[in-house]
Amino acid sequence: MQQVGKKSKGVWRWVPSLYFAQGLPYVAVMTMSVVFYKNMGISNIDIALYTSWLYLPFVIKPLWSPFVDIFKTKRGWIVAMELLVGALFAMVALAIPMSAYFQLTLVTFWLLAFGAATHDVASDGFYMLSLNQHEQAAYVGVRSMFFRMSMLTGQGALVFLAGRLTEFTGNTGFAWSIVFLVMAALFLLLMVYHRFVLPVPAADRGFVGTGNAGMAFLLVFKEFLAKKDIRLLIAFLLLYRFGESQLVKLAPPFLLDSNAKGGLGLSTADVGIVYGSIGMVALTAGGLLGGYLIARDGLKRWLWPMALAINLPHLVYVYLALALPTNLYLIGTAVAFEQLGYGFGFTAYVLFMIMSADGQHKTAHYAICAGFMAMGMMLPGMLSGWIQASIGYASFFIWVCAAAIPCFVVTAMIQVDPGFGKE
User: Which of 15, 113, 283, 401 is the most exposed, fewest CB within 10 Å of its CB?
Assistant: First the structure.
């Protein structure tokens, strides 16, 4: 274990791998599960409804985030949750060949989401404890990049692997079992790495003192609800990604569905390349650019451009649904453009949560913010499959574009310190 010292060198040893580890289970339960169930013949309505429920642990994680904040160390929580998540990936693989695979994998994904949500609380708290405010802003692009790298690995390389294994073996279930076993092995390796490489910040300690821990738990929520303009803060967290929350659930099914169903008819391997690889590279580039510009000019300067960037590129899906192009390069360019805007726009959201969480209990307060973020993804996502099935893909994507209006309203109302995030 290393002590905090030569920070610039040490940060690169753990921030990339920590946020890669944070993203891998998230992409598994939120995106890879969508492709997996689509491959297994589950309907769009059921996919959108049941996989949206997987957001629930991320929504309610503020209920136990104070315990992560006041008991044990964030470092210890990180290592323990990585061991648990690795074991759960293996359980998903073992459940796939069973006759009740749908129910069993859903339950395991749900448990995996609980482990991932707890890991999120610990890793975000560890990040804020280990770095000062400017360093947090400066490295937000790095953490976003490696979070996206995990998405690139998950919905890109591993979805591509699932597609190729299915073509080779003719057995979709077996192909996905192999993929989840690979993820289990990868996550256990990350756990071992972090056990020895994560620094030991002096501020990373559990509850200290003779006071009542239960009162400390309640105090965390009381302090959060006492924040200035709390209703507007919550509205921003819920509505900033209102359109994206619906698009993300139906984009992979749209790419996979046949032209007769209004989709583009791509293979699973093609989706791994277009959406999971090209798209994720663009998304990562957008996140890095956003982090750089906020570190240079502050969050206030770039808030509106980022709000526009996360919403206006949804128009490319309207074009794809109306034109139904077959050129993979054209499809890849359109998806990349939308993902570039998403990565750029999401940077403002991350910094807004960091700004809102500032204070004595920043770990728990950030988790509360992230819980509202997850609720803003879960509730619209649950209905998105029903909306798409009712009106078709083209009209659905037009609706997604209209869903930018609530985002613009709350963006116009919030107040941001002009100097926040700026060097």
Answer: 401
